[in-house]
UniProtKB/TrEMBL annotation:
This is Uncharacterized protein. Residues 87-177 form the K-box domain. Keywords: Coiled coil, DNA-binding, Nucleus, Transcription, Transcription regulation. The lineage of its organism: Eukaryota, Viridiplantae, Streptophyta, Embryophyta, Tracheophyta. GO terms for biological process: positive regulation of transcription by RNA polymerase II. GO terms for cellular component: nucleus. SUPFAM superfamilies: SRF-like. It holds the Pfam family SRF-TF.
Amino acid sequence: MVRGKTEMKRIENATSRQVTFSKRRNGLMKKAFELSVLCDAEIALIVFSPRGRLYEFASSSILETIDRYRSHSRNNTPTTSDSVENTQHLKEEAENMMKKIDLLETSKRKLLGEDLGTCSINELQKIEQQLEKSITKIRAKKTQVYMEQIDQLKEKEKALVAENAMLSEKFYESFNQSSPSSDVETELFIGLPETRTRRISPMLRTN
């Protein structure tokens, strides 16, 4: 028979509630004992029954465990003064960051030629010098990119010339192999048609 799932709510029947409390309390004590033995854990368990009766389990001394818990909680819980100081520090950091952002936005607008009405001569000269430095760097980078592209094109040209020479060589080899080599005989006649004699040109005579 499959055991049904217990609904997590208060048991209304007093007798059933007391029986369930006793069973679950014993099971909880047993699990705490097993955990302390198997894992060498320091455990302190305190249970009060609905009638106010105390049940407790401790792997060592329950008072020492409670003192240890209080000390741990005290050391890891920030005090009110610490919280106020941390909040104030975070607020100051946020204000400083906002000021830096405003300065960067103002500088950006001036570099774009905006909001220059309040700038002094010295400020305008500094902006001009900064722009000139930026232009110099940009031009140097552009020249470098052009040179790299030219080098790449030269390499492609060399590769194409080599490929063209190889294709030409293959074409001539194929042409020479496909052309037949045969002896040519040329007839040369001298004199009138009635008395002409046949001669073979010595330059084209075959051996």
